[in-house]
Amino acid sequence: MVNSIGINYGQIANNLPSPEDAVPLVKSIGATKVKLYDADPRVLKAFANTDVEFMVGLGNEYLDKMRDPTNAQAWVKENVQPHLPATKITSIFVGNEVLTLNDTSLSDCLLPAMQSVHAALLNLGLDKQVTVTTTHSLAILQTSYPSSAGAFREDLMDPLCETLNFHQKTGSPFLINAYPYFAYKGNPEQVPLDFVLFQPNQGVTDPQTHLDYDNMLYAQIDAVYSALASLGYKKLPVHISETGWPSKGDEDEAGATPENAEKYNGNLIKLMSGKTGTPMRPNSDLNIYIFALFNENMKPGPTSERNYGLFKPDGTPAYPLGITPNNVVGRNTTVGGGSFGNAVTNPYYPMSSSTGYMSISSTRQRYQLLGHVLLMVPLLMIKTLV
């Protein structure tokens, strides 16, 4: 099996380094995959011939337009085809967390848009190397504890099953955005911090499977696996398209500190370097994308939203992750000064061209993860953990 660390490359900022200067930063953390919220040609060109795999995005604002196969093919020809094969674009995610937005005008467009983009890839002979998918909030789950009882929301079953059939037919992965941070923020007095930060703790045992869990993220992943299996999609691969921890927050944002961000992301990267899966799927590959590469100074919402980055805009680490060549297996890692990466010199400061990122990664959408579904896991686990 091959576990892969990815990184989300957001650009809602006016002070970021050039994409060329971002390349060594991505490599310094051992990331082999990048999730881009649009198809910014500057970024895709900068990563040409680097062997880094890319997932590019079509924002929610494009869904209605992409229902038309002609529009979808024109977009693929302009934004994807010219960069292949030099840049390894392996996936297009169409829409972000659409099914939990309670907007039927969007959800009705989701599958037709995915089908049109896939048809475009097929027509252009690119369907064997580029898959089509979409991302979901963990709030698509109705039940998440214990992990073995994971189940999807009944009210989302019809559109969800349509997309699941599409994934199965085309061989594309099922993408979930999962943030244990929000569980801790919502109940800092009850949720054990060590359990969400991958620190040593007594863990919790699933009463049905008797599997032991020592971190919340893996318990959440296995809840998704269980929900998929209950509908007959046991073999569908699950990728975590976003997870992370902010290094700074407002007074009411419990846990948003450099120390906790260092533990969450650093421990996750080290854990991923081992060739193990989740308790329920120990032999399945894990593909997890950390949010995010940079702190982004123009993001709306609370202070935490602007402080998820592993790096500051000048290219220096936001905090040390303690990564060395010895604990990032099979990676070429540059280490200096007890941290990672090299400071970027002479960055230029363009306004972001990733306008679509704003619409698909807004604070409002991210905070859907604070719903009762996400908190159900830790609150019920607390009875066992404390």
Low-confidence stretches: 325-386
Mean pLDDT, all residues: 86
- Give the spatial strand order of the biggest sheet: 1-2-3-4-5-8-11-12
Q: How many extended strands?
A: 14
Number of helices: 13
Strand fraction = 15-25%
Element string (H = helix, E = strand): EHEHEHHEHEEEHEHHEEHEHEEEHHH
- CATH T-level fold name: TIM Barrel
The N- and C-terminal alpha carbons lie at a distance of 35 Å
Helix content: 25-40%
Tell me, what's the shape? globular
Query: Based on helices, strands and strand pairing, what is the structural class?
Result: alpha/beta
| Main beta-sheet annotation | 8 strands, parallel, barrel
Protein name: glucan endo-1,3-beta-D-glucosidase
EC number: 3.2.1.39
Organism: Gossypium darwinii (Darwin's cotton)
Catalytic activity: Hydrolysis of (1->3)-beta-D-glucosidic linkages in (1->3)-beta-D-glucans
Task: Give the SSE map.
Elements: E1 4-9, H1 19-28, E2 33-36, H2 41-46, E3 53-58, H3 63-66, H4 69-79, E4 88-96, H5 104-123, E5 131-137, E6 141-143, E7 151-152, H6 157-170, E8 174-177, H7 180-186, H8 193-196, E9 204-205, E10 212-213, H9 216-230, E11 238-243, H10 258-273, E12 287-291, E13 335-336, E14 339-340, H11 355-360, H12 363-366, H13 372-385
Parallel strand pairs: 1-2, 1-12, 2-3, 3-4, 4-5, 5-8, 8-11, 11-12
Antiparallel strand pairs: 6-7, 9-10, 13-14
